[in-house]
Design goal:
The strands form three sheets. This protein has a seven-stranded antiparallel sheet, with helices on both faces. It is α+β, with helices and mostly antiparallel strands and about 400 residues long. It contains 14 helices and eleven strands. The chain has a single domain, classed as DD-peptidase/beta-lactamase superfamily (Beta-lactamase).
């Protein structure tokens, strides 16, 4: 498999943005789409990485790491928001494979303090598929509470569900980090960030952190907020939290105990709901073993792939969603006639997770494909926007040609 270095003079002569990295023969359309994101879709700084049948076939980075013009480097990393949830789910499935966490057991066996009242019948599987109902905190969290793990888990355990558990699903925007992350801590005896680093990221060589050491902070590219135009049309989720600050969406979005924004304190915290920090290479590497039948058993990969819950109207996001146990599955709403077009355009049989603003990491075991895309300029969508969607579509087109 021949690899092209994207720093050649011939390439630079036709590019409006300097692209760094490598592209293997047959995967050049990904490079072209990556360039177009900068040319036409307002990309600031970003990276994209793809592995296919165990080999890295695309590893690109480009643009600026900040608004001062500093370059996005090979080792630049950024907060990937809810792509972190996929990392937490990987940790849970690895623990299940080791016999340390039973995803079919009552959660009371692992976390008895959580399972009381209406939550007594909740299973560990439900902690991963967004059906527990503990999707937001009703009472205000103290500022900085999100950085106190034990406090947040106590609050989660005491919280009453917003709907009868198991009767519907609603995306657990930030609470997932403690709902599922505490399972990792109790099953492994390590903190979420420590287990993920030692047992998931390090074995596959992934520069992916849930709790970034201060000595690594200099590599972080701070996220740039989406700035809506005067006539911007917002999603139903955004309209809901703007309209009712005390409703489910409003409480989930605003009441985070300080776990909002892009600051060194957030970077250092173990925020499993949305504080993970990595780049495209890190995302592609953590999903690569699942794409090629390594690291976890085939049985566990099947559970990652199988639909655990699906709905035409997610209680939180207010659009159609589909989840396995901890992962997003294909959710293509781009041709929807009913409103929001927010999508996750991976194929059936693939699984992964997006991050609000546009990032994504996923595995497609049927093709032996894994992919990561990370950027610093947020889009308006809670799922993918045109930048990520285009890269995913082109990656599949290239994989299909190589696979046949």
């Amino acid at each position: 498999m021949r690899t092209h270095n994207c720093l050649s003079r011939d390439n630079l002569a036709i590019m409006s943005v300097e692209i760094h990295g490598t592209v293997s023969e047959g995967w050049e359309p990904v490079h072209e789409r990556f360039v177009s994101n900068f040319d036409s879709l307002g990309e600031l700084g970003a990276s994209v990485c793809i592995t296919f049948e165990g080999e890295t076939v695309v590893d690109l980075w480009a643009g600026e790491s900040d608004t001062l013009g500093n370059p996005w480097a090979e080792d630049t990393i950024a907060v990937v928001n809810s792509c972190t949830k996929g990392a937490v789910a990987l940790a849970c499935h690895l623990l299940a494979d080791r016999g340390l966490l039973d995803l079919d057991a009552p959660v009371s066996e692992v976390w008895p303090e959580f399972a009381h009242g209406a939550k007594a019948s909740i299973t560990t599987r439900m902690m991963l598929n967004h059906t527990t109902g503990v999707a937001a905190f009703r009472e205000d969290l103290p500022q900085g509470a999100a950085f106190d793990w034990d406090y947040m888990c106590d609050r989660i355990a005491a919280e009453e569900p917003w709907w009868p558990p198991g009767t519907r699903n609603g995306y657990h925007l930030m609470s997932f980090g403690w709902v599922a992350g505490e399972l990792v801590r109790r099953a492994s005896g390590k903190s979420l960030g420590t287990f993920f680093k030692e047992d998931v990221a390090n074995p596959v060589g992934a520069d992916f952190w849930i709790g970034l050491p201060s000595e690594e902070h200099h590599r972080v590219s701070a996220l740039q907020p989406f700035r809506p135009g005067a006539d911007e049309k917002f999603s139903a989720f955004t309209q809901a939290f703007l309209a009712d600050p005390d409703g489910l969406q409003g409480r989930a979005w605003r009441n985070r105990g300080g776990a909002k924004g892009d600051s060194p304190e957030v970077w250092s915290a173990e925020l499993g709901g949305g504080g993970g920090i990595t780049n495209a290479r890190g995302l592609a590497r953590v999903y690569k073993p699942c794409a090629v039948g390594e690291f976890v058993s085939a049985r566990q990969v099947q559970r990652m792939t199988n639909v655990s819950v699906a709905t035409e109207c997610d209680a939180m996001l207010l659009l159609p969603t589909r989840f396995s146990e901890g992962f997003m599955l294909r959710m293509d709403n781009r041709r929807s006639r009913n409103g929001d077009h927010d999508s996750v355009n991976i194929r059936e049989g693939a699984f992964g997770h997006v991050g609000a603003g546009g990032s994504i990491g996923f595995a497609d075991p049927q093709l032996g494909l894994s992919m990561g895309y990370v950027m610093n300029q947020l889009g308006k969508s809670v799922l993918l926007d045109a930048r990520g969607e285009g890269l995913v579509d082109v990656a599949y087109q290239c994989a299909d040609r190589r696979h046949t």
